[in-house]
Amino acid sequence: MNEPMWRERQDSYQFLDTVTAIFVTVLLVSNIASAAKIVDLKISIGGFPLAFDGGTFLFPLSYIFGDVLTEVYGYRKSRKVIWTGFGCAGLMSLTFWLLGKLPGEVSWESIAGQAAYDKILGSVGNGAIIVASLSAYWAGEFSNSYVLAKMKIATEGRWLWSRTIGSTLVGQGVDTFLFIGVATMLGVFPVEAMLSLLVANYLFKVGVEAVMTPVTYRICNLLKRIEGVDTYDHNTSFNPFNLELFHQEVVRE
């Protein structure tokens, strides 16, 4: 295997936009699903019931694609994608909030009505949900990307499974605790369901990452081969607010 070398790289990736689009789509849909419903599959551990918010079933995919972004394209690209997702999620929440404030047309009121809107889509624009989801997403995704990038350097690119699972343990822990904790404190979820939601969501998300590890391997290896790049963040600023436009990165070719 060739040694990593320093060089400037132009943004000419074939599939970065595709991975970004999937990542943001998963984020937006899971945010709507999280606010829409709490699911009870009658699953328990030692008699302890486990409940899931609706977004739990899709949101772990955002961490899988987040791993792919950092592993293949590096922390710098992931940082831009994370901020892109943050902006899109904020715009979505603002849109649903604004729609909830506008008066409904008469025939629509007779068929669906404001009450139905408020119960489902209105909750996406709820201030508490916005604060909980955006803060959890931001902190969780940056934690995930940071840990994976640092572990890649420490392991010299070996043991991808340790990076994907290790970063998920941290990132999903931060995300789940912040989202469920903040949302519960702000009255979105009932207090009595908080512990069940925390445990169930965290275990499920980490479990999905572990089960999907072979798929993550395949996607990463395929993209590295197609893109001709394997990025190491030796020379990258890990400040989430540093949206550097020019940089020098270490890649394996």
Strand arrangement in the largest pleated sheet: 1-5-4
SSE order, one letter for each helix or strand: EHEEHHHHHHHHHEE
Tally the helices.
Answer: 10
CATH class: Mainly Alpha
Helices and strands in order:
Blueprint: E1 5-7, H1 16-36, E2 38-45, E3 48-53, H2 60-73, H3 75-101, H4 106-111, H5 114-119, H6 121-124, H7 127-154, H8 160-185, H9 194-211, H10 213-227, E4 231-232, E5 249-251
Antiparallel strand pairs: 1-5, 2-3, 4-5
Helix pairs in contact: 1-2, 1-3, 2-3, 2-7, 2-8, 2-9, 2-10, 3-7, 7-8, 8-9, 8-10
Summarize the structure.
By secondary structure, the protein is mainly alpha-helical.
Which tags fit this structure?
65% helix; Arp2/3 complex 21 kDa subunit ARPC3; 253 residues; 5 strands; 3-stranded antiparallel beta sheet; mainly alpha; 9% strand; disordered N terminus; single chain; two-stranded antiparallel ribbon
Q: Care to describe what's here?
A:
By secondary structure, the protein is mostly helical. Helices cover 65% and strands 9% of the residues. The N and C termini lie close together (9 Å). The chain is globular and about 60 Å long. The chain has one domain: Arp2/3 complex 21 kDa subunit ARPC3. The strands form 2 sheets. Strands 1-5-4 form a 3-stranded antiparallel beta sheet. A two-stranded antiparallel sheet has the order 2-3. The chain contains 10 helices and 5 strands; from the N terminus they run E-H-E-E-H-H-H-H-H-H-H-H-H-E-E.
